[in-house]
Amino acid sequence: MKIPLLDLRRGFEEIEEEVLGGFKEVFSSMKILNGPNLMAFEKEWAEYLGVKYAFGCSCGTSALLMALLALGVGKGDEVLVQANGFIADFEAIYYAGAEPIFLEVDPTTFGPDLTDLKKKITPRTKALILIHMYGHPCEMDEILEICKEHGLYLVEDASHAHGAEYKGKKVGTFGQIGCFSCGPVKNLNAVGDAGVVVTNDDNLAFKLKYFRVHGQVEKNHSFFPGFNSRLDELQAVILRAKLKSLDRKNEERRKIASFYWENLSDIPGLLLPPIDPPYKKSVYHRYVIGTPKREELVNFLKERGIGTGYYYPIPLHKQRAYLETFGKKWDLPVAERLAQELLAIPIYPELTEEELNYIVTSIRAFFGMN
């Protein structure tokens, strides 16, 4: 049996007619940019999240950079970010001109260790980029309290967490700005690069709207330096179609996660994702498990046709891109251990019961638990 980590072909059939019909309309009008599908998607995504503004952009990396620039983050500022994030989080801080301050990871949430977070706030700290890793909401009450106490801007990287909730509120809507990647592998996914940035603040919305079009508030009149980061009509067509089934497919992911927990939680020494308390609703962009025998397990599953992946095998403070620009050393043993032990197993909604049973039977066989 062959079970890839992710199969983008599955699930497309149900939206194929709608998407191809939308494509035909786009090509008939040749309104490729700033068209009706972009405006409709921005409205629909804002309504889904319960925010005033949503702006499509080229990718999640652009969303993060626009967020920091809109908040005035720049030279001399520090930005806190957990060390287990994607390189885009570091890149946004770097290109904004600020310095990243890496946080230890809480292995029970995959979010930042809040004790470490408090320790690393200095007079130069201007913002926190908060990553809802793998689709698990962070502990927002405590984080919001810390940000308020110290006057920090909160930028949420919710690229793994489309539709995730904390106490009935969608993640990405707690901070001043929320950022989403909608790339091909995300829960809400286009078939190319795509992103969206959201806010409730009128002044920030003005900046975010025009950063992505070279600061041109009026055609050929650039009011401030920006860049090119537009979401095209074709990707907007796909995102609109995908949004209709997002909640249903997230619920399927939660059911698969429950199945994995029921069948894997008795394996000694195997780290599993946290079980949601009643006030959280995770969306399981990735289902990551952890073991010191990661490489052996990956090879074992590969031999059985089961795909796996690493998210992420090098923590941000160990990336060459960071070491050659800032070069500071950090003591983050939990982040480093998780980078060496975590692996993702398949969790897309279209997995069959037979495939799920095969996955858990294989993992149990590796640990001698069958």
Automatic annotation (TrEMBL):
A Pfam family hit: DegT_DnrJ_EryC1
Active site per database record: 186
Residues with the N6-(pyridoxal phosphate)lysine modification: 186
Keyword DNA repair: no
Signal sequence range: none
GO molecular function: pyridoxal phosphate binding; transaminase activity
Keyword tags: Aminotransferase, Pyridoxal phosphate, Transferase
GO biological process entries: polysaccharide biosynthetic process
Superkingdom of this protein's organism: Bacteria
Family membership: Belongs to the DegT/DnrJ/EryC1 family.
Protein name in the entry: DegT/DnrJ/EryC1/StrS family aminotransferase
Species in which this protein is naturally found: Caldimicrobium thiodismutans
